[in-house]
Amino acid sequence: MASFKEALSNVYIRLGLVLLLLSLVLAVVSLRTSPYSFQSSGYLGAGQGIQLLGNHSASHTVSNRTLVLSGNGTLVVITAGTNKTYSLNGTSITLHPSDTPILSVIQGGISYHYEEEGTEYHYLNLAIVAFVIMLLGSMFSIYGFTHVMSDLKKERERRRRGS
Questions:
Q1: pLDDT digits (tens, 9 = 90+) for 59-102
Q2: CATH number of the domain where residue 93 is located
Q3: CA-CA distance, 115 to 96, in Å (whole number)?
Q4: Residues 51-60: pLDDT tens digits?
């Protein structure tokens, strides 16, 4: 029976294990996060509108959105395909939209303050590289394992003939 040290003498198994370890390190690094925030404030008059986008990409997840509206006027807030009309008469309202809102003022003037908070994954693209390296490491390890097994089979046959 071959020992682990004998199996590691095969260059393909060693290379495969190194690549698998490297892919594991890259996958862990790709999970590094930092806080993300975006803020936007302004004033909209009658007939004006704005889409509050933030900085959206695959490397961001938004956990909290807050929209504070104040002023005297009527506006429509569009989020995730729903339209809601709000009339403000010197009051303010706080909304927590599920998606990025679009504001459209129908009459009067509205002040808005929008905030997004979430998580940013700076090295998310390393996960793809880690996956490719993991596939290569697996292929080399399997290839090396088949070589070790065929060498063992040849050695066993040689022993039988020699006996």
A1: 778 888 899 999 999 999 988 878 899 999 988 999 988 888 88
A2: 2.60.120.10
A3: 10
A4: 776 666 667 7
The helix (run of H) or strand (run of E) holding residue 74 is strand 60-79
**Prediction pTM value:** 0.66
Residue 2 tokens read as 């071959």
3 state SS of 80: coil
Residue 104 in domain = yes
Any domain includes 53:
yes
Which two structure tokens, joined as six digits, stand for 6?
């004998």
> Is the distance from CB of 144 to CB of 16 less than 8 angstroms?
yes
What's the one-letter identity of residue 52?
Answer: L
For residue 84, the enclosing domain spans 33-121
Number of domains in the chain: 1
**37, part of any domain:** yes
Evaluate whether residue 94 is within a structural domain: yes
Looking at residue 93, its amino acid is: I
